[in-house]
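Good day; I would like, with your permission, to put a structural problem before you. What I wish to show you is a protein chain and, alongside it, a tokenised description of its three-dimensional fold. Thank you for your consideration; the sequence and its tokens are set out here:
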Amino acid sequence: MYTAIRSYTTSDSAELAKRVQEEFLPLVRDVPGFIGYYVVDAGDGRIASITVAEDEAGVEESTKRAASWVQERLAELVTSGPDVLAGDTVVAESAGA
């Protein structure tokens, strides 16, 4: 597995999350190797997105699809970022797995 974590600050975390849920997730669900996408609201306008795919190519394709969408639909909400941390997932556990 390969994972990318991107952290941002935003002026409206609820609106950002709503747009991601309604608009962005449909764009990445069919990425080859896609495993999951998560958004974490850390409070005080701090947001992190987590993309998990079977391999680096899946994360890169997700990033590619996100680039123009973020610029078009989130630019006015993002006040800084992203700071990116990406790499091989070396430990993973899921309930029922």
In short: Residues 53 and 59 are 6 Å apart (CA to CA). Residues 2-88 form a domain with the Alpha-Beta Plaits fold (CATH 3.30.70.100). The mean pLDDT is 94.
